[in-house]
Amino acid sequence: MSDVEILDQNLRPHQTYLDGLAAGTLLYQRCGTCGAAVFYPRVACNVCGSVDLAFQPSAGEGTVYSNTAVASAGGPAYSVCIVELDEGFRMMSSVVGLPAEDVPIGLRVVGQFETSDDAAPRLVFAPREAI
């Protein structure tokens, strides 16, 4: 594939990512030059600068890398976390199924989609044992 074809394929990486979410699939990119897992979608590899990026589906399994319990006025605290996916990239999300303050670093989690009528699907994570 030529650089022009690759670049044309990647001109709208954000839209490709959103289309994947709408279809119930978490997509990330893999660099064909250096092999890096690239997330959030972009037009060039953040490791080597190559435009040879290809979208791949993630299994949606990973490990909690960090977690913060955010207090909410009038409601329970909610989790804001970084999950390190098994494919080698990290993403921000939240952990559901546990009180936010009880989410341990190193917890194995599995992604699941939350949907609502007025918003795009959102990927959250649940403890692997609970699935």
Automatic annotation (TrEMBL):
Signal peptide coordinates: none
Domain spans labelled ChsH2 C-terminal OB-fold: 56-111
ChsH2 rubredoxin-like zinc ribbon domain ranges (all copies): 19-50
Matching InterPro entries: ChsH2_C (IPR002878), ChsH2_Znr (IPR022002), NA-bd_OB-fold (IPR012340), Thioester_dehydratase-like (IPR052513)
UniProt protein name: DUF35 domain-containing protein
One Pfam family per UniProt: OB_ChsH2_C
